Amino acid sequence: MIRNSRNVIRLALLLVPALVVAAIPPPTPADGGDALVLSPGVLVAAGQPRAYVSDARGRVAAIDLDDGGVLWAGPARGQPLALDGDTLWVLGHPERPGSLRLLRVDAGSGAVDGQLVGELPPEVIASPMALPASRFHVLALAGAGGLELHWQFEQWPLRGANLVAADQDDDDAASLSSGVLRLDPDQARLAQAPSLDAIPFRRPDLTGDERLPDLPGVQFRAADDGHVQTSSPVPDPVFGHRWRWQLHERAGGGPAGASVVATHATSPFLVRGSTLLLREEPVAYRDGDGNAIELGVRLLAMDLATGRQLWAIELADPEHRLPPPP
Questions:
Q1: Each residue's pLDDT tens digit, 39-78
Q2: What confidence tens digit (pLDDT) does each residue in 68-110 have?
Q3: Residues 267, 271, 276, 279: what is their CA dihedral angle, to the nearest 10 degrees?
Q4: Contact 163, 209 (CB under 8 A)
Q5: Alpha carbon distances (Å) from 319 to 187, 193, 274, 282
Q6: Which whole-number Å values give the CA distances from 122 to 97, 104, 125, 157, in the listed order?
Q7: Pairing between strand 275-280 and 298-303?
Q8: Under 8 Å between Cβ of 215 and 228
Q9: Separation CA 10–CA 6 (nearest Å)
C-alpha cells in the first residue's frame, strides 16, 4: 500500500520520464495589514526587504528578500496572516475543533509574545494546513474596528476511499461555513463579528473589464495588482515543456522586463524592483543522468533582466497530498 505522498511521486517517476505536479494557484488574499500577502502563508513586508513564511519544517521564519537568507526561524509554527507594526499575527494549530488560535509574534526576533483564542462553530477545524477532508481559509483584513479575520471552512464527507466531489448536488456534497472574528483594538481578545459577511478570496485570473486589452490568453494578477502575467509553453529536454512567462505592467500594459521560464504555467507572484518573487508548487522529475529529483513547495526569486534564479527557499506544503484511506 502507498503510505505517503513521496511514495506516490516515486511511483510516478518510474512510469514517466518527467512529471510536473499540476499547479492550481491558490486564491490571492487582498490584505495583510502592514504586509502584502503573496500567497496564503507568505507575507512580504511593506517597505522592507523581508518576507514572513512557514518554512519546510512548519516554523514561522523571516526571510531576507535580497539574498534569501534566514533572519530567524521559530519557535512559532503556523501560517503568517498579517503584520501590524512590530507584531506578526500567526494562525497556530488549534487546541480543539471549534476554536481559532492566533499567535502574537515579535516580527524582529520571532519570539512568541502571547496568544488569543476565538470561538468558532464546533465542527470547524481552524488548521493552518489542509486536512484529509477539510480546508480552512482565513483572510486578515485591516478594518475600521481593528484586524478582521474573515474565515471559510470547507468539509467533504469520506465515502470509502473516495472523496465526494465538491460540486455534487446531493446531501453528501461539501459543506461550507464562514464568518468573521475581530481582533479588538486593545488586542485582548478575539470576538465574533456577526454583522460582517466573510469576504471571498479574489480570483487570481482577470475577467471582464479587468483584463488588459489586446493581450490574448489567460491573464493572472500579481499579489499587489501591479502586473499581469501570461505564459506560453516552450520545449524543454527534461520536462518535455516548461512555461515562458511574460509580465506586463497593469497600468499601460507594457512589459516589465525580459521574460522568464518557469516550471508551471502560473504561480502566485509579485514584482519587486527588478526581481520576480513567485511561489512554486512541488515538482518531481528525472534529470539528464536519470536521477530522480523531488522539489517541494518553494519561494523563488528570479532576476527579470537575465531570467536567472537568484535564490530559493523551501516552504511548508499547505496541501494534503496523502491518498485517502482505503
A1: 888 999 988 899 999 999 999 999 999 999 999 998 999 9
A2: 999 999 899 999 999 988 999 999 999 999 999 999 999 999 9
A3: -30
A4: no
A5: 31, 29, 30, 10
A6: 6, 24, 8, 16
A7: antiparallel
A8: yes
A9: 6
**What order do you get walking across the sheet with 59-64 strand by strand?**
35-39, 42-45, 50-54, 59-64, 70-77
Query: In this structure, are residues 80 and 88 in contact, taking their beta carbons and an 8 Å threshold?
Result: yes
Q: What are 45's three cell numbers?
A: 513586508
> 195 Cβ partners below 8 Å, 6+ apart?
none
Q: What is the grid cell recorded at 155?
A: 468539509
Please name the amino acid found at residue 79.
Answer: Q
Burial class (CB in 10 A: 0-12, 13-18, 19+), 170: exposed
Instruction: Identify the DSSP state of 31.
Output: -
Residue 169, judged by CB atoms within 10 A of its CB (0-12, 13-18, 19+), counts as exposed
Q: How many CB atoms lie within 10 A of CB 212?
A: 15
